[in-house]
Structures are given as structure tokens and as C-alpha cells.
Specification:
The chain is an alpha+beta fold. The protein is 24% helix and 16% strand. Strands 3, 4, 5, 6, 11, 12 and 13 form a seven-stranded antiparallel β-sheet that branches. A four-stranded antiparallel β-sheet has the order 7-8-9-10, with no helix packed on it.
Length: 311
Amino acid sequence: MADNTKPETPAPAIVPQTGEATGAAATTGSPAAGQTASAPPTGANRAATPQQTTTAAARPAPAPGPASPATAPAGTATATATATTAAAAPAARPAAAAAPRPAPAPIPDLAGRTTTAASPGGASARTATPAPAAAKATTRDADDTSPLLTRRGWLALAWGAFSAASAAALAATGRFMFPNVLNEPPQQFKIGFPTEYGVGVDERWKEKYGVWVVRTTDDIDNHASGFYSLSVTCTHLGCTPNYLSAENKFKCPCHGSGFRLTGVNFEGPAPRPLERVRIVLAEDGQILVDKSRHFQRELGQWTDPEAFLKA
């Protein structure tokens, strides 16, 4: 069956008479029905003056007059409202753009002070003067993380230690090129003329040559006046005795052995007397002592002519 339903026709908007709308607008200053409010005069503050936008739906419909014009369609009223809203939007933008911007926040300093970028100690000063730690870090390689020395420092230390060890090894090797020589004083030496000595013990050659030179008026074995030379080596264990002039004897500090001025032992663990060394008169008249030849009393050698120099 065919659909006999007719489409609904929208109700036409009623527009007031031209004469009445014009008179009302002129009398009250309000826009007529179906019209938008005019823009404010030039120079007026649009943001302060609210824009009045009216539509046909918001206003009451006026009473129909005898000379009403033809009604306008509903689409015309909607287009009028959209144009009014679009015209009011640009008027609000300048007011929003004219608002002042807030001042930028100051840059905080590392020391806890609030400064600007150009003030002393601010961001510009930190940028111009780099920290010493950062400058030091630039000298290291990217993978060098040693907390003590840089890589170059470790290499220098290693090469220095290697060079020192090599030098020491070469010095020790060179030492084997030379024989071991014990520097000892000469075995034969002159000690001066006989007139330079008095009776008693002379110790001037003890430290240098290791002998005592004794001048006596009566020798125990030769029964004559003259000179003899005693070795300063103890016959017990080889220590060096001391001459005690107050006690008129030689005393060993190691084990207490005692010897008389003739060299004969009389106390302590020493088993035999001190040894005498060769003493003769040289061609120039000086006394010559030869330590390469020793004389022992227990063997009867003190009576040898070279064991005692008669004077």
C-alpha cells in the first residue's frame, strides 16, 4: 500500500512589522526582533561591553498586525544566530591577547641563592668557569676509571720499576767480573826510630796495624833491654784485648782473659800467651815490623833474634 503520510512542514517564524520594530529600536536603543545587536562604536572596549545576541526563539512573538510581511523560513533565523556568534568571537580574542605575561622565574644557583643568569655566581658564571674536576676528567681516556693514577701514570710507574730492576741486575752481574779482594793493611811497615819510644806500651799502631810495641828494660826470656811487638789477637777466641795502664796488663773483654806486659797469660780461659811478631831494624835506622811471621813462647821462639830487638 502506498504511504499517504505527508511530510511535516516547519512552522514559519513570525517577523514583526517594519514600522513597529524600527520605532522600538529607536526609542529604547534595543535591536529589533529578528536582528542582532550592532557592534560597539570604534574605540570602545569590546571586552568590557557585553555583546547581546538574541534569536527569534528567545524573544516573545509580537502580536500580528494588519500589514505583516511574509514569514521567513526557520533556516534564515539559524543562519542569523550563527553569524552573530562568529562575529562576537573575534571581538573577544584581542582582550585575551592583551593580558600581560608573567615574569620568568629566576634560575636557582648551586650555592642556594636565587640569582639571575647574568648575576655573579649564576648560570653564566658556571658556564664561563668550568670546575677543576671536569677539566681533570678531560685528560683521561673514556675507559680509564682508575681511582689512583691515569693509564699513563701506571705505564710510567711500570717502566720506571722495570728500568730500576734491570739496572740492579746489570750491576750485580758486573760485580762478578771483579775478584773478591780483602783490603788489609800491609804486613810490613816502619814505625819510626827507637828514640821516639819510651819505656812501656805504645798503642798508636793498634787500630791501624793490630800490634802493640813494648819497650822494656829487662826482657823475660832474653834478659836484655829492647823492643818487642805483640799481636792484639786473644789466644782464646780471637777477640781484641784492651790495655789497662792502671793495672799494668792486657784484659780481654769477651771472656776475661788476662795477660801481663810480657804477653804471658795468667787469668781467664786463654790457653797460651800472646804471640810476638818479627821486629828488626831497617837499613835507614827505623824499626821495621813484619806481621807475616809470628813467634810463640810455648815453642821456645821468643828467644829468636828477630822476636826481640835489642837497644
